[in-house]
Amino acid sequence: MDSDDLLFRRHAAEGVLLLGGGAAILLQLADDRVAHGVARHSDFAHRPLDRLFGTLDYVYAIGFGDDAIVREAVRRVNRRHGPVRNGGGAESPAYSAFDADAQRWVASTILATALTLQERLWGPLDPHVADVVVRGYGELGIGLQAGRAGWPSTRAGFDAWWSGRLATVEVGDEARRIARTLLTASPALPPGSRFLLPFVRLITAALLPPSVRDAYGFRWTPRAERVSHAWLRAVAIAWPHLPASIRHAPMRASLTRASRANRYAGR
Question: How far apart are CA 119 and CA 197, in angstroms?
Fold first, then answer.
């Protein structure tokens, strides 16, 4: 394993990145193809956390898994993506989960949110580390159908590409409907989790680009800005003092699930 791989793993292993999960999902849904695909081919209303955990398992498998775990993660995602396609019509855009551009968009939302969160917590990344992180997240799409073409190799290249894509994003009614399901007291959420929703909504809104935040209808006030900054500051101070067993727990739990699934599949 070379030094760049170690730098990326050091970044991606931190469970604090889960704070950006809501923002990444809302950014993904801001692409109309993704929103309609999720709405018509998943049980989002009754199992709203499935997409978050499914994405996390894939990210951890690609970033940390051995060859067997990576192959199984790719196979599982491709199987789920198989039925997700539509030729388009008056009320729905044409979409396919195997669309390379859509896959790059999903990977880019995860990267952009991770960069935003890390720099909101601890300030600007070292340019070399940022370049490594950009290339590391590119593997998410490369492992599927996106390939390497079109994925930037540097932070500067990604920032320029991301700004251009954001300018074309238009949050649709389908995306707003799914966002309400995700961020309100849905009966499908685990018991007790509803008490966290005000915090989740606040951090999600804080990490979204202003144009996307406004399009989703978040009410963003100076007070909301101050409170979100205070929460993020508290996390930034406390997080480095936690033991690695806690900081890396989501990654280890995901890889444990993947290893067990592979053993059962082998039998």
Answer: 23
Q: Where are the domains of the chain?
A: 6-98+170-266
Q: What is the pLDDT along the chain (267 residues), one digit of tens a residue?
A: 688 999 999 999 999 999 999 999 999 999 999 888 887 877 766 666 676 778 888 899 999 998 888 888 888 888 888 888 887 766 778 888 888 888 899 999 999 999 999 999 999 999 999 999 999 999 888 777 777 777 999 999 999 999 999 999 999 999 999 898 888 866 556 666 677 889 999 999 999 999 999 999 999 999 999 999 999 999 999 999 999 999 999 999 999 988 887 765 554
β-pairing, 95-96 with 85-86?
A: antiparallel
Rounded to 5 degrees, φ, ψ at 65 are -80, 160
Find out whether 58 and 50 touch, Cβ atoms under 8 Å. Answer: no
CB count within 10 Å of CB 264 equals 8
Type of residue numbered 148: R
CB distance 12 to 64 below 8 Å: yes
Nearest to 100 by CA among 58, 148, 132: 148
- Token pair of 15 as six digits: 């469970």
Interatomic CA distance for residues 86 and 94, integer angstroms: 5
Q: How far is CA 212 from CA 25, 27, 235, in A?
A: 12, 8, 24
Tokens, residue 225: 């800005």
